[in-house]
Amino acid sequence: MLIYLNGEYLDYSEAKLPVDERGLQFADGIYEVALIWDGRYVDLDRHLQRLERSAATLELRLPFMQSEIRAVAEELLRRAQPRLASLYLQVTRGVAPRDHRFPAGTVPPTVIAYIKDATIDQEGMENGVAAITEPDLRWLRCDVKSVSLLPNVLARQHAAARGVREAILVRAGIGVTEGSATNIWMVRHGSVVTAPESNWILSGIVRGVVMELTNAERLPVAERFATQEELMQADEVFLTSTTSFVTPIVQVDGRSIGDGTPGPVTMRLQELYMERLSRLASHVVD
Ligand code: PDD
Q1: pTM to 2 decimals?
Q2: Distance from the alpha carbon of residue 182 to the mean position of ligand 1, in angstroms
Q3: Domain that holds residue 170
Q4: Are residues 107 and 87 both part of a single domain?
Q5: Domain termination residue (choose one: 117, 149, 183)
Q6: For a pocket test of ligand 1, which of 242, 247, 286 has the largest count of ligand atoms closer than 8 A to its C-beta?
Q7: Most exposed among 87, 132, 260, 268, judged by the fewest C-beta atoms under 10 Å?
Q8: At which of 97, 117, 137 does a domain end?
Protein backbone atom coordinates (compact mmCIF):
# COMPACT_ATOMS: atom_id res chain seq x y z
CA MET A 1 0.00 0.00 0.00
CA LEU A 2 1.21 3.45 -0.94
CA ILE A 3 1.20 6.18 1.74
CA TYR A 4 1.56 9.90 1.19
CA LEU A 5 3.34 11.32 4.24
CA ASN A 6 4.49 14.94 4.48
CA GLY A 7 5.37 15.38 0.82
CA GLU A 8 6.61 11.86 0.06
CA TYR A 9 5.00 8.79 -1.48
CA LEU A 10 6.17 5.84 0.58
CA ASP A 11 5.67 2.16 0.93
CA TYR A 12 3.45 1.31 3.92
CA SER A 13 6.47 -0.16 5.76
CA GLU A 14 8.51 3.04 5.27
CA ALA A 15 5.83 5.45 6.48
CA LYS A 16 6.82 6.12 10.09
CA LEU A 17 6.07 8.82 12.66
CA PRO A 18 7.71 9.75 15.98
CA VAL A 19 5.94 8.85 19.23
CA ASP A 20 5.41 12.51 20.12
CA GLU A 21 3.19 13.05 17.12
CA ARG A 22 0.22 15.09 18.38
CA GLY A 23 -2.33 12.98 16.55
CA LEU A 24 -1.13 10.00 18.56
CA GLN A 25 -0.76 11.77 21.91
CA PHE A 26 -3.70 14.19 21.90
CA ALA A 27 -5.87 13.13 18.93
CA ASP A 28 -5.03 16.70 17.89
CA GLY A 29 -6.04 16.39 14.27
CA ILE A 30 -8.74 16.12 11.65
CA TYR A 31 -9.57 13.74 8.83
CA GLU A 32 -11.71 13.07 5.79
CA VAL A 33 -12.91 9.94 4.02
CA ALA A 34 -13.83 10.42 0.36
CA LEU A 35 -15.23 7.89 -2.08
CA ILE A 36 -13.64 6.62 -5.27
CA TRP A 37 -16.40 5.21 -7.47
CA ASP A 38 -15.67 3.59 -10.79
CA GLY A 39 -12.11 4.92 -10.61
CA ARG A 40 -12.99 8.57 -9.89
CA TYR A 41 -13.34 10.78 -6.85
CA VAL A 42 -16.85 11.69 -5.82
CA ASP A 43 -17.51 15.09 -4.22
CA LEU A 44 -13.83 15.56 -3.33
CA ASP A 45 -14.27 19.36 -3.32
CA ARG A 46 -16.98 19.10 -0.68
CA HIS A 47 -14.72 16.92 1.48
CA LEU A 48 -11.81 19.36 1.12
CA GLN A 49 -14.05 22.28 2.03
CA ARG A 50 -15.19 20.44 5.15
CA LEU A 51 -11.54 19.72 6.01
CA GLU A 52 -10.89 23.47 5.86
CA ARG A 53 -13.82 24.14 8.17
CA SER A 54 -12.62 21.50 10.65
CA ALA A 55 -9.10 22.98 10.55
CA ALA A 56 -10.38 26.50 11.17
CA THR A 57 -12.37 25.38 14.22
CA LEU A 58 -9.33 23.67 15.72
CA GLU A 59 -7.08 26.66 14.86
CA LEU A 60 -5.02 24.25 12.81
CA ARG A 61 -3.09 25.85 9.96
CA LEU A 62 -3.34 23.69 6.85
CA PRO A 63 0.05 23.49 5.10
CA PHE A 64 -1.47 23.32 1.62
CA MET A 65 -3.96 24.91 -0.69
CA GLN A 66 -7.00 22.87 -1.70
CA SER A 67 -5.51 22.50 -5.18
CA GLU A 68 -2.30 21.00 -3.74
CA ILE A 69 -4.03 18.36 -1.66
CA ARG A 70 -6.27 17.60 -4.61
CA ALA A 71 -3.11 16.98 -6.67
CA VAL A 72 -1.90 14.51 -4.00
CA ALA A 73 -5.26 12.72 -4.08
CA GLU A 74 -5.12 12.52 -7.88
CA GLU A 75 -1.54 11.21 -7.80
CA LEU A 76 -2.49 8.46 -5.32
CA LEU A 77 -5.42 7.57 -7.57
CA ARG A 78 -3.19 7.51 -10.66
CA ARG A 79 -0.76 5.15 -8.97
CA ALA A 80 -3.29 2.80 -7.33
CA GLN A 81 -5.98 2.81 -10.04
CA PRO A 82 -8.73 1.35 -7.86
CA ARG A 83 -12.34 1.02 -9.05
CA LEU A 84 -14.10 1.15 -5.66
CA ALA A 85 -12.08 2.57 -2.78
CA SER A 86 -11.84 5.36 -0.25
CA LEU A 87 -9.28 8.10 0.25
CA TYR A 88 -8.24 8.61 3.87
CA LEU A 89 -6.78 12.03 4.59
CA GLN A 90 -5.51 13.15 7.99
CA VAL A 91 -3.86 16.35 9.20
CA THR A 92 -2.54 16.77 12.72
CA ARG A 93 -0.76 19.56 14.59
CA GLY A 94 2.57 17.87 13.97
CA VAL A 95 5.42 16.55 16.09
CA ALA A 96 6.59 18.30 19.27
CA PRO A 97 7.59 17.38 22.84
CA ARG A 98 4.41 16.52 24.73
CA ASP A 99 2.72 19.71 25.93
CA HIS A 100 -0.97 20.50 25.70
CA ARG A 101 -0.24 23.97 24.34
CA PHE A 102 0.20 24.35 20.59
CA PRO A 103 3.86 23.86 19.55
CA ALA A 104 5.68 27.18 19.51
CA GLY A 105 7.17 28.41 16.25
CA THR A 106 6.82 26.73 12.92
CA VAL A 107 6.14 23.05 13.54
CA PRO A 108 4.65 21.72 10.30
CA PRO A 109 1.40 19.76 10.52
CA THR A 110 1.60 16.03 9.73
CA VAL A 111 -0.24 15.18 6.52
CA ILE A 112 -1.17 11.59 5.75
CA ALA A 113 -3.14 10.34 2.75
CA TYR A 114 -3.74 6.90 1.33
CA ILE A 115 -6.24 4.94 -0.68
CA LYS A 116 -7.92 1.92 0.80
CA ASP A 117 -10.06 -0.62 -1.03
CA ALA A 118 -13.75 -0.49 -0.19
CA THR A 119 -16.57 -2.97 -0.54
CA ILE A 120 -20.25 -2.47 -1.08
CA ASP A 121 -22.65 -4.25 1.28
CA GLN A 122 -25.17 -5.32 -1.37
CA GLU A 123 -27.11 -7.48 1.06
CA GLY A 124 -27.49 -4.66 3.59
CA MET A 125 -28.41 -2.13 0.91
CA GLU A 126 -31.13 -4.39 -0.47
CA ASN A 127 -32.57 -5.97 2.65
CA GLY A 128 -31.60 -3.50 5.36
CA VAL A 129 -29.40 -3.68 8.42
CA ALA A 130 -30.00 -3.67 12.17
CA ALA A 131 -28.89 -1.03 14.69
CA ILE A 132 -28.94 -0.35 18.40
CA THR A 133 -29.38 2.95 20.25
CA GLU A 134 -26.60 4.23 22.48
CA PRO A 135 -26.21 7.37 24.58
CA ASP A 136 -24.34 10.10 22.69
CA LEU A 137 -21.35 10.75 24.96
CA ARG A 138 -19.38 12.99 22.56
CA TRP A 139 -18.14 16.55 23.04
CA LEU A 140 -20.04 19.66 21.99
CA ARG A 141 -18.37 20.15 18.58
CA CYS A 142 -19.49 17.06 16.66
CA ASP A 143 -19.51 19.21 13.50
CA VAL A 144 -15.70 18.96 13.47
CA LYS A 145 -14.36 15.85 11.77
CA SER A 146 -11.76 15.27 14.46
CA VAL A 147 -9.69 12.09 14.85
CA SER A 148 -10.76 12.12 18.49
CA LEU A 149 -13.31 9.33 18.06
CA LEU A 150 -13.36 7.44 21.36
CA PRO A 151 -17.13 7.69 22.04
CA ASN A 152 -17.79 6.72 18.40
CA VAL A 153 -15.41 3.76 18.74
CA LEU A 154 -17.14 2.56 21.93
CA ALA A 155 -20.63 2.91 20.45
CA ARG A 156 -19.65 1.10 17.26
CA GLN A 157 -18.00 -1.67 19.27
CA HIS A 158 -21.19 -2.09 21.34
CA ALA A 159 -23.12 -2.44 18.07
CA ALA A 160 -20.63 -5.02 16.78
CA ALA A 161 -20.83 -6.96 20.04
CA ARG A 162 -24.61 -7.15 19.55
CA GLY A 163 -24.09 -8.31 15.98
CA VAL A 164 -25.59 -5.19 14.37
CA ARG A 165 -24.30 -2.68 11.87
CA GLU A 166 -24.58 0.71 13.53
CA ALA A 167 -25.12 2.47 16.85
CA ILE A 168 -27.67 5.30 16.67
CA LEU A 169 -26.65 8.00 19.13
CA VAL A 170 -29.24 9.65 21.37
CA ARG A 171 -28.16 12.84 23.14
CA ALA A 172 -29.78 13.47 26.54
CA GLY A 173 -32.08 16.49 26.28
CA ILE A 174 -31.64 16.74 22.49
CA GLY A 175 -32.76 13.49 20.83
CA VAL A 176 -31.45 11.35 17.98
CA THR A 177 -28.30 12.97 16.62
CA GLU A 178 -26.55 10.60 14.19
CA GLY A 179 -24.84 7.22 13.99
CA SER A 180 -21.34 6.40 15.23
CA ALA A 181 -20.05 7.01 11.67
CA THR A 182 -23.21 7.79 9.68
CA ASN A 183 -26.07 10.26 9.52
CA ILE A 184 -29.46 8.90 10.54
CA TRP A 185 -32.82 9.62 8.88
CA MET A 186 -36.40 8.53 9.48
CA VAL A 187 -39.59 8.71 7.46
CA ARG A 188 -42.72 9.38 9.49
CA HIS A 189 -46.18 10.29 8.23
CA GLY A 190 -44.71 10.91 4.77
CA SER A 191 -42.10 13.36 5.99
CA VAL A 192 -38.33 12.76 5.90
CA VAL A 193 -36.68 13.74 9.18
CA THR A 194 -32.99 14.17 10.00
CA ALA A 195 -31.05 16.13 12.60
CA PRO A 196 -30.31 19.74 11.63
CA GLU A 197 -26.78 20.91 10.81
CA SER A 198 -25.48 22.05 14.17
CA ASN A 199 -22.73 21.37 16.67
CA TRP A 200 -24.48 18.07 17.53
CA ILE A 201 -23.78 16.28 14.23
CA LEU A 202 -21.23 15.97 11.48
CA SER A 203 -22.65 17.58 8.39
CA GLY A 204 -22.26 14.52 6.17
CA ILE A 205 -21.40 14.99 2.52
CA VAL A 206 -23.90 12.28 1.63
CA ARG A 207 -26.43 13.94 3.96
CA GLY A 208 -26.10 17.10 1.87
CA VAL A 209 -26.54 15.21 -1.39
CA VAL A 210 -29.56 13.25 -0.10
CA MET A 211 -31.08 16.52 1.07
CA GLU A 212 -30.77 17.82 -2.50
CA LEU A 213 -32.39 14.61 -3.78
CA THR A 214 -35.35 14.94 -1.40
CA ASN A 215 -35.87 18.49 -2.67
CA ALA A 216 -35.68 17.35 -6.30
CA GLU A 217 -38.27 14.64 -5.49
CA ARG A 218 -40.41 17.22 -3.67
CA LEU A 219 -40.43 15.09 -0.54
CA PRO A 220 -41.34 17.01 2.61
CA VAL A 221 -38.29 17.26 4.87
CA ALA A 222 -38.01 18.34 8.49
CA GLU A 223 -34.56 19.04 9.89
CA ARG A 224 -35.10 18.41 13.56
CA PHE A 225 -34.03 16.02 16.29
CA ALA A 226 -36.34 13.00 16.53
CA THR A 227 -37.03 11.48 19.91
CA GLN A 228 -36.03 7.89 20.49
CA GLU A 229 -39.74 6.96 20.67
CA GLU A 230 -40.41 8.55 17.28
CA LEU A 231 -37.49 6.67 15.81
CA MET A 232 -38.83 3.36 17.10
CA GLN A 233 -42.28 4.14 15.64
CA ALA A 234 -40.98 5.45 12.32
CA ASP A 235 -42.26 4.02 9.05
CA GLU A 236 -38.70 3.88 7.71
CA VAL A 237 -35.20 4.51 9.06
CA PHE A 238 -32.02 4.73 7.03
CA LEU A 239 -28.41 5.77 7.32
CA THR A 240 -26.10 7.65 4.96
CA SER A 241 -22.33 7.91 4.67
CA THR A 242 -19.55 8.01 2.11
CA THR A 243 -18.88 4.29 2.37
CA SER A 244 -22.44 3.10 3.18
CA PHE A 245 -24.31 5.23 0.60
CA VAL A 246 -28.03 5.04 1.52
CA THR A 247 -28.70 1.92 3.60
CA PRO A 248 -32.08 0.97 5.11
CA ILE A 249 -32.24 0.21 8.84
CA VAL A 250 -35.00 -2.34 9.41
CA GLN A 251 -34.48 -3.17 13.06
CA VAL A 252 -33.54 -1.01 16.06
CA ASP A 253 -32.87 -2.46 19.52
CA GLY A 254 -34.30 -5.79 18.36
CA ARG A 255 -37.62 -4.25 17.20
CA SER A 256 -38.77 -4.06 13.60
CA ILE A 257 -39.05 -0.66 11.91
CA GLY A 258 -42.33 -0.52 9.96
CA ASP A 259 -42.93 -4.00 8.58
CA GLY A 260 -39.26 -4.90 8.99
CA THR A 261 -38.38 -4.44 5.33
CA PRO A 262 -36.83 -1.46 3.50
CA GLY A 263 -39.41 1.24 2.79
CA PRO A 264 -40.24 2.93 -0.52
CA VAL A 265 -38.83 6.38 0.30
CA THR A 266 -35.51 4.90 1.42
CA MET A 267 -35.24 2.74 -1.67
CA ARG A 268 -36.13 5.62 -3.98
CA LEU A 269 -33.43 7.82 -2.40
CA GLN A 270 -30.95 4.96 -2.58
CA GLU A 271 -31.74 4.50 -6.29
CA LEU A 272 -31.30 8.22 -6.98
CA TYR A 273 -28.08 8.33 -4.98
CA MET A 274 -26.57 5.35 -6.85
CA GLU A 275 -27.67 6.84 -10.17
CA ARG A 276 -25.87 10.05 -9.26
CA LEU A 277 -22.68 8.10 -8.47
CA SER A 278 -22.80 6.41 -11.86
CA ARG A 279 -23.47 9.71 -13.60
CA LEU A 280 -20.52 11.42 -11.90
CA ALA A 281 -18.23 8.52 -12.75
CA SER A 282 -19.32 8.30 -16.38
CA HIS A 283 -18.89 11.90 -17.55
CA VAL A 284 -18.75 14.80 -15.20
CA VAL A 285 -15.68 15.40 -13.06
CA ASP A 286 -17.22 16.77 -9.85
N1 PDD B 1 -17.75 8.69 8.67
N2 PDD B 1 -21.39 11.20 11.10
C3 PDD B 1 -20.21 10.76 11.55
C4 PDD B 1 -19.94 10.82 13.02
C5 PDD B 1 -19.24 10.26 10.65
O6 PDD B 1 -18.06 9.83 11.10
C7 PDD B 1 -19.56 10.21 9.27
C8 PDD B 1 -18.57 9.72 8.25
C9 PDD B 1 -20.82 10.68 8.84
C10 PDD B 1 -21.20 10.70 7.39
O11 PDD B 1 -20.48 11.68 6.70
P12 PDD B 1 -20.19 11.57 5.13
O13 PDD B 1 -21.52 11.50 4.47
O14 PDD B 1 -19.46 12.80 4.84
O15 PDD B 1 -19.39 10.30 4.93
C16 PDD B 1 -21.70 11.18 9.78
C17 PDD B 1 -16.62 8.34 7.84
C18 PDD B 1 -17.02 7.66 6.58
C19 PDD B 1 -15.64 7.54 8.67
O20 PDD B 1 -15.39 7.97 9.80
O21 PDD B 1 -15.12 6.53 8.22
Answers
A1: 0.97
A2: 5
A3: 122-281
A4: yes
A5: 117
A6: 242
A7: 260
A8: 117
Catalytic residues: 145
pLDDT the model gives residue 283:
63
Q: Express each pLDDT in 26-47 by its tens digit.
A: 999 999 999 999 999 999 999 9
What's the gap in Å between 81 CA and the centre of ligand 1? Answer: 24
**How many domains in the chain?**
2
On whether the CB atoms of residues 156 and 180 are closer than 8 A, the answer is yes
Has residue 192 been placed in a domain?
yes
pLDDT in tens, 67-104: 999 999 999 999 999 999 999 999 999 999 999 999 98
In the predicted structure, residue 286 carries a pLDDT above the cut 70: no
Amino acid of residue 194: T
Please count the other Cβ atoms lying within 10 Å of the Cβ belonging to residue 122: 8
C-alpha 218 chain-centroid distance: 26
CA of 145 to the centre of ligand 1 (A): 8
Residues with CB under 6 A from ligand 1: 33, 152, 178, 181-183, 202, 204-207, 240-243
Greater confidence, 285 or 200? 200
Each residue of 197-236: pLDDT tens digit?
999 999 999 999 999 999 999 999 999 999 999 999 999 9
If asked whether residues 113 and 196 sit together in one domain, one would say no
Please give the backbone phi and psi of residue 143, each rounded to the nearest 5 degrees, phi first: -75, -15
Which candidate, 181, 47, 44, 34, places its Cα nearest to that of 118? Answer: 34
> Does residue 140 belong to any structural domain of this protein?
yes
Within-domain flag for 286: no
